[in-house]
Amino acid sequence: MDYNGKQVFYEYIKNNSKTLIIFIHGSGGDASTWKNQMLANNSHSVIALDLPSHGKSDRFEKLSLKLYVDVLKELIESLNYERIILCGHSLGGAVIQSYYFLYPMNLDALILISTGAKLRVSPAILESLKQDYETYLTYLKNVAFSKKTKDSIMNEYKDKSSLIGAEVTYQDFKICDNFNLFEKTHLIKAPSLIICGTDDKLTPVKYSQYFHSKMPNSTLVLIENAGHMVMLEKYKEVNESIIKFVKSIE
């Protein structure tokens, strides 16, 4: 997709469904975060977006929440679907919440995974991204997953994250740190699925429970033995929850 003369990449699996789910990754991630969701079923079309400066997308000089929302808006407007469902992980959750409050009529449902209404970031994370990227990557591996997650899953994610780079990841986390829609959560009326791993240290279960307590049309799914990267750690459970949710609103 062309956006102001730059290319923004997305993976697209299309079928004859009138429903499209758009998956948006978290800080320092890319479309591959959703590899297990893209092939989960063939009942609806799916897109996994590489945000600007991530994955296969072109590099942008300045990253911002506004840029991410604008790119998402342009992508949605370029397609022709009756039903749009946005799924965001962590930073991606901030993107889709922000999109909802700007364009509530342009989507039909939200899927909020390992995210929150505000996303404060530990100063230690920001400092490690500035000073020692390898330390950050090791820290990420230790805190983003459940202790019961296989090393192969953690190492693969660490290797993928290392390709994004410290500067882009730092800008993502600064966006998260400044994000706060805490006082507006109760205004989200769209059908919403909230998913969180019970071992999530970065966006703890209480964040998802807050969503559920404030959003009148929400479903909360807590997944055991999974951390912040629940869609990689327990992808079967995540996929089953998404498929059930989508069927419930069609």
List the helices and strands and how they pair.
Elements (H helix, E strand, L loop, with lengths): L1 E2 L2 E2 L2 E4 L5 E6 L10 H4 L6 E5 L15 H13 L5 E7 L1 H12 L6 E5 L9 H9 L1 H11 L7 H14 L1 H13 L13 E6 L7 H10 L3 E6 L6 H4 L1 H15 L1
Parallel strand pairs: 4-5, 4-6, 6-7, 7-8, 8-9
Antiparallel strand pairs: 1-2, 3-5
Describe this structure in words.
The protein has helices at 35-38, 65-77, 91-102, 123-131, 133-143, 151-164, 166-178, 205-214, 230-233, 235-249, and strands spanning 2-3, 6-7, 10-13, 19-24, 45-49, 83-89, 109-113, 192-197, 218-223. The chain starts with a strand and ends with a helix. The protein is globular, with a radius of gyration of 17 Å. Helix 5 (133-143) runs antiparallel to helix 6. The chain has 250 residues and is α/β, with parallel strands linked by helices. Helix 8 links the parallel strand 8 (192-197) and strand 9. The model has no long low-confidence stretch (mean pLDDT 96).
